[in-house]
Amino acid sequence: MDNTVIKIQDAVVSYREDVALQGVSLEVKKGEFIGIIGPNGAGKTTLLTVINGLGKLVHGQAWVLGSRLNGRNSSNLRKRIGYVAQVERIDPRLPISVRETVMVGCYGRLGLFHRPTRAQWKIVDGVLEMVGVAHLSQRPIGHLSGGEYQRAAIARALVQKPEIFLLDEPTASIDKKAQREILSLIQLIHKEYHTTTLFVTHDLRTLPPTCQRLILMKEGKIWQQGRPESMLREEVLSQLYEAPVVATDEIAPLCS
Amino acid sequence: MLVANKGDMGISILQYQFMQNAILAGLCGGITCSVVGVFVVTMHLSFIGVCITHAAFAGALLGLWLGFNPLIGALLFSLASAAIIGPMADRGELNPDTSIGIVFSLMLGLAFLFMGLMPGARTEALSLFWGSILTVTRQNLIFLAVTTAVVIGLLVIFYKEIQAVICHREVALAVGIPATVVFYSLLFSTGVTITASLQSIGGLLIYSLILNPAAAAYQLTYNLKRMLLIAIAFGVISCWAGLAASYLLDIPSGASIVITSSIIFGLATAFSPKRKVKGWQQIKLAG
């Protein structure tokens, strides 16, 4: 039985004159944990937006969770895809609490004209407990630190019950301790929820050891891909980033 | 003594139809303007609202010049401006400030052009500038009441989608909420509200009534439902207190309503718990 959940064929995405993706083809099997690395402007985020239907293809095709993306069905598919972006600046006076923000994750699946039930609020409280921010649930979302905010964002994606989990530099702009905690949480979720996970980062030290396949992107193309131990070599990385890269102890677990 | 006489007259004046209409217009205008104000203030789109206001004003003047109902012109122009500004700001082809500024200046230019082309006395056109809640017609009042009912109805039915879009638009889109449809509906609601309130509050002043109560409520709570209720209370109080001040002090009603709402905003900002306390644990807020 074919368990491909994402299939992209010859995808081209263009923002005005800039071509963000150039003929990218990719297949992802159910339950895979894939790391996507590359320099800035390599097309990593654009690849994720193609998968959740927000990026418009000017050429090529994409199938996600068994459906071909056609612009009309992308909204429905997004209900089944959790998406966590990097920490964003939030107005500290925004009139919404952490608990309400996490509940927004349920709204897509709930659909129009339906209000959240008590059972759904219980699920939200349970997920907040799991990601370790239950004690902050009544706090305004704009009052959280970067690490706390990312935990809330992960909780929001989790209450969607996602089949695909897209993480776009979730550990950028947060301190090292919070980075380690967020990475542990992401790996735990992948293991417990059996999601198909795509993790984008430009910081090699934040690649989780759970990563089974590494995609190296450069200039809008998939430059190389393979197992982490074969990709995370100094000569490969130095070519990718066009600068000398030293394999540090922090990425050693991935190379073993 | 003069005040006492005015006070006595104040009670008797409530028996007049025009005053009852003005009070009802203040109630509906205060509610609707405050609700759409909460949308634009929370989304940080205040300047879009200013632009839509001037578009409505230009459309109304076109109606007066060409001899059709100014409200129809105001409605068409405000909806068209929302339809133009939204995509311009979204696509990022121009900086949102630039695109809104261009449409804003165009609308202001058109308003003055239509006014300049108008033959004869421009009394009615000038009344659109300042508004006159005391001369609001029954037709206007019905339009305003229907707009209020529709805006409140949509808010109640689609509260969760509106909350998601005004607080976390990108997230709303990512979880499968029809965020773009909701966003444009909010802009169009703003356009319709401005059109409905144009004759009573006036084209130059209406936006203050949209912005001030919502901005004041934004200072006082972290809870969206409470923010809506506080903004509505401030909006209605602004209209009624402004109306009373207009009658007692013999000053233009639109101006007195807007000044009242500005005073409320000033007080809310001065006493805002959000700017006084640094730590969340210390904050004792309504929400």
Task: Provide the CATH architecture of chain B.
Answer: Orthogonal Bundle
In this structure, how is the largest beta sheet of chain B organized?
A: none
Give the helix/strand class of chain A: alpha/beta
Distance between the termini of chain A: 31 Å
- Give the overall shape of chain B, derived from the CA principal axes: globular
Helical region count of chain A?
9
Radius of gyration of chain A: 18 Å
Specify the structural class of chain B: mainly alpha
CATH hierarchy, class of the domain at 1-80 and 197-256 in chain A:
Alpha Beta
Overall pLDDT of chain A, averaged? 88
Question: What features would you describe in this structure?
Answer:
The complex is a heterodimer of chains A (256) and B (287). Chain A is α/β, with parallel strands linked by helices. Chain A has a domain at 1-80 and 197-256: P-loop containing nucleotide triphosphate hydrolases (Rossmann fold, 3-Layer(aba) Sandwich), CATH 3.40.50. In chain A, 34% of the residues lie in helices and 25% in strands. Chain A has helices at residues 44-51, 74-78, 98-110, 118-131, 146-158, 176-193, 228-231, 234-241, 252-255; strands at residues 4-15, 18-29, 33-37, 59-64, 67-68, 81-84, 164-168, 196-200, 213-218, 221-226. Chain A is globular and about 50 Å long. The mean pLDDT of chain A is 88. The radius of gyration of chain B is 19 Å and the shape is globular. The model of chain B is unreliable at 279-287 (pLDDT under 50). With 287 residues, chain B is mainly α. Chain B has a single domain, classed as ABC transporter involved in vitamin B12 uptake, BtuC (Orthogonal Bundle), CATH 1.10.3470. Classes of the chains: A alpha/beta (256), B mainly alpha (287). The A-B interface holds A 16, 52, 54, 75-79, 81, 83, 85, 88, 91-97, 100-101, 104-105, 107-110, 112-113, 115-116, 139-141, 143, 156, 160 and B 42, 44, 93, 157-158, 160-161, 163-164, 167-168, 170-178, 218-219, 221-224, 226-227, 274, 280, 287.
